[in-house]
Design goal:
single chain, 69 residues, mainly alpha, 4 helices, 58% helix
């Protein structure tokens, strides 16, 4: 369900899982939230499917100066 959201965020910025969850939850709204377990499983599935390189997960954390709080 969250695959497109995560992929679209990673297309624009190199983010770690915490930041993906924070931005994603702000986009989704208060009715539904992305849990860390769901996000971890999703990232692993995206790596296994070849949609994101495993290096993205190994180079963490990334600098966040490109994003505003």
């Amino acid at each position: 369900m969250y695959e497109l959201l995560v992929l679209s965020l990673l297309m624009h910025w190199p983010l770690h899982a915490y930041r993906i969850a924070k931005i994603g939850n702000e986009i989704i709204g208060p009715e539904e939230q992305i849990s860390t377990g769901t996000l971890s499983s999703l990232l692993n599935r995206l790596v296994q499917a070849g949609l994101i390189p495993p290096l993205i997960l190994e180079r963490l954390p990334f600098p966040f100066n490109c994003l505003s709080e």
